Amino acid sequence: MTNRYKAVIIDMDGTLLNSHKEISKRNKEMVIDIQQRGIKVALASGRPLDHLMEDALKIELDKYHGYLVGNNGQEFYDFKEKAIYRGARLPQEVLINTLKIAEKYHLSCFGLSQGYRFRTEKHHDDYPSVIKENKDIIFDKIGLNDHAGIKNVWLVANELKELLAEHCQVMVTDNTTIELVPFGIDKIVGVDRIRDLNHFHNEDILVIGDGENDYQMSCHYPFVAMHDCFDKLKEKAIFITLSNDEDGVAYAIEKLCI
Fold this sequence. Notes:
- The protein is of the alpha/beta class.
- It has 9 helices and 13 strands.
- The strands form 2 sheets. An 8-stranded mixed beta sheet has the order 5-4-3-2-1-11-12-13, sandwiched between helices.
- A hairpin with a 4-residue loop joins strand 4 and strand 5 (83-86).
- Helix 1 (25-36) runs parallel beside helix 9 and helix 3 (92-105) runs antiparallel to helix 5.
C-alpha cells in the first residue's frame, strides 16, 4: 500500500505530549512505525531546539533523518545534515513593552536567545533591572506565562499587539502562554523548508496540532486538530482526533497514515 502522506509534522505541548509532558508508549510506537514505513517526521514547537532534542531522540528522529522546527519556526534542525538554521530576531522594544505588560497583569516573562535565557517571577518588582541586565541581548523569542492560566488571555494578547504592531508577531499558544516572535517567523516556514528539501507537495504533508501557532500550517496543509484545540483550528481540520491524554497523535496516524 502506498502511504497517503510522505511527512507528518507534530506539535508538542497539548499534542504529542500528554498533560504530564511525556510521550506515551502508544504515541512513541506509532511515530516510530511510520518512520519505518518511509514517512518523514518533524516536531514543530514553540520550544527552542535544545528543549526538543531529548524527545526527538526518544522517537528516533536522528535514526530516520527527521527535522525539528523550534521557537515557532525561528530555528530549524536537519538531522541528516546535522545543521541548524536560524531566522530573524526581536528588537529591544519588544522586551521593554512585554515586561510592562507582565508587571501590569502579574505574569512571568521569559526570553530566549541562542543558549541564553531569563525568566521573571509573576510578582517580580524590579523590571528596570531586568531590562538593564538584558540591554545588549537580542532575543529569538519573548513571552508571557502563568502555569495556572492567563486570565483574559486574548485581552492581554491584543494589548501586546497594539503596543508592538510594528515590531513583532503575537501568538497565543494556549491559555497559559503568549509568545512574541519576529515577523516572518512561523512554524509554516519550517514546514515549507521540509517540503522543498524533499520535493514534496503541500498535500503530501500532514500536520497535527492544537494551538494558535499551528494556524498558518492548518491553512496550507492537511491538518489534524486535537480534541481540545481552538475552534478556528477545528474549522480548518480534515480530521479531529482524540485529546493528548488519549493518544490523539497515535489515533490520527493510525486512521490517516497506515
